[in-house]
Amino acid sequence: MIKKISMTVLALFLLLPSWSHAGSWTKDPSGVPGQWYVGTTPSSVAPSKQPILFVHGLNSSSNTWWNDNNMYDTAYQNGYETAFIDLYPTRNMWDNGTLLSQKIRDIYNYYGEKVVIVAHSKGGIDVQSALVHYGAYPYVSRVITLSTPHYGSQLADLAYSSWAGWLAGILGSKNEATYSLQTGYMSYFREETDQNANVTKVPFYTFGGTKWGSFGSSLYWGGLYLSGYGSNDGAVTVNSSRLPYATELKVGGWNHYTIKEGSSTFNLFKGYLNETTNNSSGAVTQSASFNNDADSFFRGGGYSGETQEKILVEEGARSVTFDWMSSSPSSRLVLKDPKKNKYSSFDVSKDNSDYFNGAYHHTLTINTPNPGEWTLESASQSTETYLLNVSFDSIMNNAVSMSMEQDQISLKKKDSDVSIQQDMTIEYYKNGKLKESKLKSKNGLLKLPSLGEGVYNVTIDIKGKKGKNAFNRTLIKTIYVDDKGRIFGE
């Protein structure tokens, strides 16, 4: 049985009895933001067991905890009272923080005691916003985050880049939530949050995942792209799942979806759900650190009929993965290597991620590829839009690095024998409209123009050479400038 509760309404969903489950109902809750639900009360609840409030993530809803997931049932079988809430699925942490803070207070009053919050993905950011910025901390004893991108997601950066932004827009993936998850903006959120006096009022415990999805899936593709930034679960890096003042309970072999399943993680955080839990446990607190290997090359656009892209593959590359992401599965692809060998056996799957949901991946990995210029040809009977991501496993991934130095982006060569040429594009929104311009660097430094408050996405296309060995890479960086002119970035 589940109870649907709002400010003035209390309704019960029809219960279909089942001895092995906490409860089931003929239809899911409506998903209306702000409505919250109480799960079936176990027959015996120990006084020391605190109620659990489950908070969903981006593009999700409360039913993520019981549809194809045994988290709700696992909590019930272990004797815990439960509550679930629907937030705005595509709004930022400020809107959801405001809404959630009010409802946390209501849930506290309903139970008459503090709750423990378990949050998945962006839900952890919404929770911290509610506690720190909107005063909900007196009603919560502790927070457990499951693969929360506390420092943002490089996949959000990619979605707003010059090569991929149009595809994300066509797919409807651009919204307030994904905009706020760009790493530049999240750097600002971390500054505003981590220096707030309320930040230590409620202890945080974190989990991170290291497993991707099956080959060709959205989590596999996401994991491959994010691997240049460190170990990840296909959507969030382990480093981003950490907070320097939080206790990391475990990093394990979960992907971004399995980490929220009851059979995966409940028993690992069960000891932190009680009133008697010692918040200063012996678990290790981890700091977040970030790297940025140049291991990807991007191209994108629209076409009707036929199109092709040229890709340089350097000598010594151990493998290269071609992922052609399009708005339909109708693309007919042929890959040709420098020796005119042809490849067409692409694995096709539909993307269900937060950033390119609805796109179709056409994926092919070539081991020990022939060096030189490769050509990927596509034909479609209708107008087609696409994003090509080429991921390299190569020693040249470490040839170039990028970093922020005050108001400048620094492009550094890690090998003195490497020469590079770069083409830089900056995109930003002004008066609600997307603006784009080309930028020039001087001595490897790109000085940011004075454009006012906003998130700025810089795409750097690199053509490099070491001796006679040529290579291509794309680097992406987001920066946030606040209303005082302060600049934030990793």
Strand residue percentage: 35-45%
Number of domains: 3
User: What is the third-level CATH name, the topology of the largest domain?
Assistant: Rossmann fold
pLDDT < 50 stretches: 4-26, 281-285
How do the strands line up in the largest sheet? Answer: 2-1-3-5-4-6-7-8-9
CATH architecture of the largest domain: 3-Layer(aba) Sandwich
CATH class of the largest domain: Alpha Beta
The secondary structure category is alpha+beta
Global outline: globular
CATH superfamily of the largest domain: Alpha/Beta hydrolase fold, catalytic domain
Q: What's the short version?
A:
17% of the residues lie in helices and 36% in strands.
Description:
- The protein is α+β, with helices and mostly antiparallel strands and 490 residues long.
- It has nine helices and 24 strands.
- It has three domains: 2-272, Alpha/Beta hydrolase fold, catalytic domain (Rossmann fold, 3-Layer(aba) Sandwich), CATH 3.40.50.1820; 293-393, Jelly Rolls (Sandwich); 399-490, Immunoglobulin-like (Sandwich), CATH 2.60.40.
- The chain has helices at 71-77, 93-111, 123-133, 154-159, 165-170, 176-180, 183-194, 218-226, 262-269, and strands at 2-5, 10-12, 36-39, 52-55, 82-85, 115-120, 140-146, 204-209, 247-252, 296-313, 319-326, 332-336, 342-343, 347-350, 360-367, 372-393, 400-405, 408-413, 418-430, 433-439, 445-447, 454-466, 469-481, 487-488.
- Strands 2-1-3-5-4-6-7-8-9 form a nine-stranded mixed β-sheet, sandwiched between helices.
- Helix 2 packs across helix 3.
- The radius of gyration is 24 Å and the shape is globular.
- It starts with a strand and ends with a strand.
- Mean pLDDT is 87; it is low at 4-26 and 281-285.
